[in-house]
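Protocol step 4 of 5: obtain the predicted structure for the target chain.
Materials: sequence only (see below). No template structures provided, no constraints applied. The aim of this step is simply to have a reference model before the mutagenesis design in step 5. Sequence pasted as it appears in the construct record:
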Amino acid sequence: MPGDIAVGQCLQFSPRTSFRLRRKLKPLLRGLPSAFGSALLWPVFVLVFLPAAARAQLSPGPLSKAHQSLSGPTKCTACHKLGLGSGNLKCLECHTEISSRLAGQRGYHPQVVKKGAGDKDCARCHSEHNGESFGLIRWNPPLPNFDHALTGYVLEGKHAPLACAQCHLPDRILPSERPSIKIKDIKRTYLGLAPGCLNCHIDQHKGQLGSDCLPCHNFSDWKDISKFDHAKTKYPLTGAHANVLCGKCHVAAGPTGPVKYTGLAFGNCADCHTDPHKGAFKDSCQTCHNTAAWKTPRVASKFDHSTTKFLLLGKHAQVGCETCHGGADFKKPLQHEKCADCHHPDPHSGQFAQRADKGACETCHVVEGWKPARFGVREHAQSKYPLLGRHIEVACAKCHLPVGTATRYKITFARCLDCHTDAHKKQFAKPPYANKCESCHTVDGFHPSTYPLGKHEETRFPLTGAHMAVPCIECHKADTAGFVPYRFEDRACQICHLDPHRGEFQERMKKRRKDGSVPGCEACHVTKSWSNVSRFDHSTTAFPLLGKHRDVPCMGCHTSDKLETTLKNVNFKEAPTKCENCHEDRHAGQFVRYGTPPDCAHCHTVIRWKPSLFDHDKEAAFSLQGAHKDVACDLCHKLKQEVNGVKVLFYKPTPTKCAACHGST
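Step 4 output (structure tokens):
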């Protein structure tokens, strides 16, 4: 029904809801003029003639505090348009400050309102009919996370950490924007601010340089004006002017006035600089000077100093005029007969005053430069200390060190240690050397030493045997700090040599000799050769070497389980002492009756294996009597059998009958 639709559109009801409402209100409409049944007057009837309780039931909810003036059934059309369905809002007709920004694409709203949506998009962030205390502004994301770049003004540098309230203040809203802002509490609005620096900051230049600060300043550091290009001004800075601080030229106009940046006079040098010559020269400053440096005048091209009594030669030609002509008084006569007339005080503090030339500078120096001096090796040969050997290569400053502002040229040189540090750290401080370096070294070089091998005989450690062939550095080695030891309180062998016996002979090595000294390795060895152990007396051990044992080499008994050809890893105390530990049983166990294993010494001696000590009369069942004494053993004992690959002579069985050897005849 047309009327139903009209009511629904007016009150934001759907057609179905409007139809139900019409049925409920029908009894109330009976008897009223027929015109009220038309679609046009339906809304008017509902809003005017309907009881207040019924009208309250038709509203979606009470308005917020800001819109309280629009409450009431007769004011719906102030915000809603009739006949336009759900898109019936008229927000921008009232909020012209937003509509103008949307039209001009300024600020935040053009970034979030869909293009062409207009009033329809307002309800996404501003919801009404939710009660008087409901907030009309919904921030998504929350305000602390707001992206300020959406407003068209990116927060950079020191602006970035600022809180909103530090910038959005009522007194910073532009006067032109203030009338259009509808919000009553002006402190709550974020509208009306301009992006210009001077909207928030005081103009320190008082309008001298315009309103745009960014050509010179940045957001990170106000005092950083590196962006400013003075070359684009009326007075480009050249030469030394480029290094002058801004405050030297741009000073405050009075005690409380602003710094002056415009209107400065700069046509002549005298506008800033006072005349140091006090009118002595009529020409302009540029005739002799330029902006590169005041003290490097161009006067040389104009003034010929050779017409004076003092020619400018060498380094003098580079000296600024005012260095000699103090106070820029060029008419005052100057003394220049001697170097000391200008160059004083004496940089050598009178060290050469006693010389024949009274220390005249030109003896050693020239005007081309103070350094290097002309005093060289040839001149040094005439001094008390001629330079010889490696001393010729030494730079002057190595010996002649500064003392205060002067350099010391008269130095002590009686001993090498007057200049050189003791590389041996007082090892040779006592007699007979008494720290006389020349005892072992010469000026031709510290290395090699002139200490002869024969001289070592006079030390506490004479070199004998193989020690004479050892290079010095093998014993005298530098430590990590570079120190080389030459005096050793402990001169025992094991200080230099490792003990290959791992302390096996400590007892023997510590046993003092007749003179009270401890032999150490020399208890067995000599310096001529390590393998010479002639000092070792095997008879002092638990196994004296007798007979054939004397001919056996050490490695015959003292062996290593590492299959070595040396004695480095041998445990000498573990050497066997019994015959069977070294010798195999040649009799294959025939004489076990003498022990297990058999006692070889029962029949043999260390002198030799043959003849045997075996007593045939006492030990055997066949006594050798008469001619049998002279019969060789192998004439009777002939039985040989192979045992483990070795042929063994068996003594049993042996015939004892005469016929077995001599025959039946």
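Step 4 remarks: Residues 1-18, 34-48, 52-57 have pLDDT under 50 and may be disordered. The first strand starts at residue 402 and ends at 403.
Proceed to step 5.
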